Amino acid sequence: MRFLMTTKGGGPAPDEAMHIEMGKFVEEMTKAGVLLATGGLDPAGTRFTSSGGDLTITDGPFTEAREAIVSFALIEVRSKEEAIELSRRFWQIVGDGVGDMQQVFGPE
Amino acid sequence: MTSWDAHAAVDGVWKLESARIVAGLVRMTGDVGLAEEFAQDALLAALERWPESGVPDNPGAWLMAIAKRRAIDHLRRAERLDRKHEQLAHELTTQPDESLDLAPDGDEVGDDVLRLMFISCHPALTTEARLALTLRLVGGLRTEEIARAFLVSETAVAQRIVRAKRTLAARRIPFEVPEGRERAARLSSVLEVIYLVFNEGYAATAGEDLIRPGLCLEALRLGRVLAQLMPGEAEVLGLVALMELQASRAEARTGPEGEPIPLHEQNRGRWDRLLIRRGMTALLQARTAGGPLGPYVLQAAIAVCHAQAATAAGTDWAQIAALYDALFRVLPTPVVQLNRAVAVAMADGPEAGLALADPLLAEPAMRNYHLLPGVRGDLLARLGRSTEARAEFERAAELAQNTPERAILLKRAAACGGRDDAVTLGHAVAAFLDRADLDAGTLRAYRHTMNRMLAHLGAGIPLPEVTAERVAELFAAAWGGAADATWNRHRAAVRSFAAWAARDRGWHTADPAARLGRRHEPRGRTPALDPVFVEALLARPGLALRERTLWTMLYESTATAALALSLDIEDVKSIGGTGGTGGIEDIEDIGDHTRGTLWGPRTAGLLPQLIAGRRRGPLFLADRRPAPARTPPSRDLCPETGRRRLSYERAEYLFKQASHGNTLYQLRLTEPAATRRPSPS
């Protein structure tokens, strides 16, 4: 089953050591055949609001940086527990912050 | 533990870590069985402690430390401490506990996992054992998970694993990645196991579900891990590419009812672009790695051709056909040939495809492979030969083991439209075997031949399409290697069938036996006995009545020993005996025909003495009663004496003893010198 992990902005800025740690973690997850795709996101996105047939397009940045998703990882694992275990390792490296994990529907 | 089940959390960690732990332990102990035992100990410890303490910061190292400690304890207890173990034990016990958490560097762990893959896929193991052991050791699956995935019992899986470990230990298979010439062969065994796991998931051979995604995912994971561990191997990357590309279509492969959707009808919008991209990347890496094009790289290249086509019509079939030509050169199997036929049919038309597919009918390996009639049905339908197409689809449905697949084949058969008025093979055979004018033995022999024809050609095929070519193919596949007498017997059956259908019924046939040559039967391969010798044997004083009767029967008639021994007294009475001197009541004179088959006049003279007033039960009896624990079925027991039927083995033994090693079969071939067997008239 696949999970999308996302992290939100507003945490402490990553330092050099964390970059290295994270690089190693990503490499290990790729080697283990778990990580399908990952990337960082510009917090200043573009927002679409559709209401009654009207589409409003607003360019960021938005005021609440904590709500913006700044990175994602798409992983393929055998159970939710495996995904949780991997998230735990991820957050051990990142330290403080907020993020979500959601199952991507599809073949289990 | 918080919101999730602690046991599930342990399982999650275990699946991520177990391969590395087991691999490290095999390197330490040199024994797969022991390694797994200690790994299991560590897993149990985690299940015990983590619910209280929470998952440790480095759960993999925690598990490894426990397992290593168990291993050291064991090695001490078993007093198998050689110098190396002693040193290892010393290091482990004198160092502070935290040092146990220091895992060896990543490469070394990786190499251990790679060795583990090679040992669990070792060719000394059966395929089933390789699959189970690999999923268990490298995939970290539990026995019950493997059993569920392969739809077999847990006991069966456990036994396979135990036997595999025993074989590895007994054969002292080293824990290493082999070098030199062995390396290629061993690697292909690893790739084969991974691809078999994938295929079992992707095209489930049995059961209700067409796809078991868990197995596909497991195989993909194994392949991806292997590709990272052996980065320069083109075929490893080719296999990964192939699996990624095939998996990309998983969603589109089945319809709402779970029925399979063929590639050209799939909704390409549902193909997983992420997996396609990963597959293409892996294929590019494989090409960069260089070397000759291997089977996995070629198959992946074919899959890429499909993935690149925006529509089914836009598929570059010429390119695919060329790739199949190349694949057939490195992997000349009937299945590849069949796929090649499909590609060629798409590139050059169904006629060309059929020309490649038809020779496969003579392949014994394809006899029960449902895709052959499936493909032929499809090609025939495209040629407008709908009656033949229908028969092929029906035959494919008979052979398909998977429920949704069978349903779609039957649907396709029905879509071929109604039959014309031609008599089908099934109908003709039923009528042929229903004849009253044939004796039981002849019918039995004919039935054997006819059933083979039905199984091969399908009952639904119209009689005029049972052509000489088809029957010749059937004969080549079924009895090409059989004894000449067997070939001639089946040939006679087909000739009799054809003659009867054309002459007695006036049905239109395609002269099915026209291309079956009669084989010359070499005489004397099994030498008959000298009649003089047999007569002397029978005249031997003190020869037991039972042996004298049985031997005379075989000598005088064409009956086989098995048939003679299966006779009951009731049979003898209903057939009757001629020349009886009393003792048998209800004797009727019967025709020479049966008598010639079963017994001649001299036997008839002996039968009443042998029966000696018994009314029922086996004609030839053993000397003793069977022990209570070995009581045979009642039909083999004499109700009057309690003795059992004489066995073939015993009868053969007695004749060999008396005749200096000759067999009952030779006795049967021997014809009495003076009195020739009465001819049936």
UniProtKB/TrEMBL annotation, chain A:
Signal peptide: none annotated. Residues 6-89 form the YCII-related domain. This is YCII-related domain-containing protein. Belongs to the YciI family. InterPro entries: Dimeric_a/b-barrel, YCII. It comes from Acrocarpospora corrugata.
Automatic annotation (TrEMBL), chain B:
Keywords: DNA-binding, Sigma factor, Transcription, Transcription regulation. This is Core-binding (CB) domain-containing protein. The keyword DNA-binding applies. InterPro entries: CB (IPR044068), DNA_brk_join_enz (IPR011010), DUF6596 (IPR046531), Integrase_recombinase_N (IPR010998), Integrase_SAM-like_N (IPR004107), RNA_pol_sigma-70_dom (IPR014284), RNA_pol_sigma70_r2 (IPR007627), RNA_pol_sigma70_r4_t2 (IPR013249). One of its GO terms (molecular function) is sigma factor activity. It comes from Acrocarpospora corrugata. GO terms for biological process: DNA integration; DNA-templated transcription initiation. Residues 423-502 form the Core-binding (CB) domain. Transmembrane segments: none annotated. PROSITE patterns: CB (PS51900). Belongs to the sigma-70 factor family. ECF subfamily. The keyword Transcription applies.
